Amino acid sequence: MAVKVLPQRFKTRAPNAREMVCSLCIVVGGSACSKAPTPYEWNLPNHIPAPTVPADNPMTVESVKLGEMLFFDTALSANNTTSCSSCHDPEKAFAESRKVSVGAHGEELNRNALALINVAYNASFTWAHNNLDSIEKQLLIPLFNEHPVEMGVTGNEDVILMRFEQGDYPALFKAAYGDETPSVNNIVKALASYVRSLVSFNSAFDAYAYRQDDSALTAQQLEGLNLFFSERTECFHCHGGVNFTQSSKHSFQPFGAQPFHNTGLYNEDGAGSYPKTDMGLYSVTFNKQDMGKFRAPTLRNIALTAPYMHDGSIATLEDVIAFYARGGNEAQSPNPYRSPFIKGFSISEKEKAALVAFLQSLTDEEFVEKHVSRKNK
Amino acid sequence: MKMPFRMCVMPSLLLAVLVSITGCDVVNLKGREPGEIPFKLIGVDTGACPMIMSIGKQRWNVDYFGFYLSKPEVRIDGKWQRVKFKQTQWQTPNEALLKFHNKCSNPNDANSKIVLDVSEELLKLSTNLRFTMGLPFDVNHANPLTQPSPLNDSSMFWSWQNGHKFLRLDVSKSGEEARKWSYHLGSVGCNSESAVRSPEKSCAFTNRVEFILPMTQLDTDLDLEVSVSNIVAQVDLNEAPSCMFESPETEPCKKLIQNLVHRPWIKWQ
């Protein structure tokens, strides 16, 4: 009856020891090792502080370059079909036009792919999570998730790593981490560095607001701006700060601002419930107060990232505004969880168009062009 | 609402040991190394390919079954004493991964024993063995990619919970393999001070289970039995949704946790 099976040695990866030795020689002069990686320059506007970066994954030119290669490479998925960019398309500010993402095995995820913009400044990751402490940790989800499979790395590490022992990769790994042998940990580090490098602060709005260029916005966009920052629409309460999200570490928010809100997108039972398949922050904390709470995402480049909301359930910006104007969905039914800032407002068609025009002024063409051209390289 | 799922399952296990001491010999007949305790699945045909679990008339393939144990301790003269697991690919000094596999998949990718780093003499002095199903808080939430084996086994990663699964059971219905059912258990609802720090406080649902097993001088010869059917008792795998902890307070998760705590699913043979 009993299973008598012999334990096998796991293939443990020990690149860290080598890594350590190598960074040591770099410190003492680098004679035997490759040249030390080059510190990354952010090139941020003056009013934007550099984001905090984990001490064990410093930003270097080499790690960002390696991360960029990996980001666009389907070799990172077990069946070689899916890259990060399959769901995060640079033409869409690293979001996608599907309602919800589809993983490497064709299974649908619950959620719409988030745009990857200024993620380095995020105080939280994904649409609703209060307990992922870094981009590095967040990336384990698309890589290792099995329900549904996103990239399918679980159990296929050896096959996948072997693919990176060829071509330009050994040199890129060596330059970034002093070791040409790829490891999952270094892959994650490089991807996180690349994601951190995706900063976008060069929209028409930025020219107007931070570079004092009065001609950067049209009269219609200015009308929309004033509506956005008005007590009537309340948009700025949740999408505030330089990143248009409270969930940002350098956005000069009032202390203790809560970055998660229930917008009333669902009210399944007249008591505020969200669909069982996705109850937002509640599904992570199991605290009833968190029912249907999601992070207010950045609105930068928002014109490019349709459809909208965590499940892609709203198709256009006009529809998003109409949604807020009617006070959320099922607004007549009681909903103890809906944010007090979602109370509905009246808005004319002209004003709606102005608000959309303002949201369009948040597009950073330079950012998009830069990354699209790199993708096509 | 917040329940600490920690209980010991001692009383029923005591009984199990009492009925099984006959016929044993002090000499270790099975040629085990000191401190080795084999685990044996019961109610599962482990010779079949894939392994088959029978529940009433239904037959289910066990596609994956594994769990972590940690914090081994023995009681000697009424005092608990920390002991270590022998360090192997399946064990760090404080954590062990049990992973059961069927004949046809790579049989080497499995471990069905723990090995305590203790002498036979020490074990003989022990009156109890205690361990926890699950991982300690800090180990659970550390970067799994840089941890030693078996903590780096990605099939036990639970990335959306920023931790590890403590127990994983995946089954599919025999003859109707597209019909799958999964039970993934680990700590959930772990609040951190801030989202950009590791969780420092404990979790709303720690979901660790402590086992206290009696030991007698004769136990150095016994196996521990693991009953999968006790884990899923009173859950209709045909009807019930999987439990991967999207909501711990709904069925079948609630029932499954009760089983884990109240039904003796690990006991002496």
TrEMBL record, chain B:
It comes from the Bacteria. Residues 1-23 form the signal peptide. Transmembrane segments: none annotated. The keyword Cell division does not apply. The keyword Signal applies. InterPro entries: MbnP-like (IPR023977), MbnP-like_dom (IPR046863). Residues 56-244 form the Copper-binding protein MbnP-like domain. Keywords: Signal. NCBIfam families: MbnP_like_WxW. This is Copper-binding protein MbnP-like domain-containing protein. It comes from Alteromonas marina. The lineage of its organism: Bacteria, Pseudomonadati, Pseudomonadota, Gammaproteobacteria, Alteromonadales.
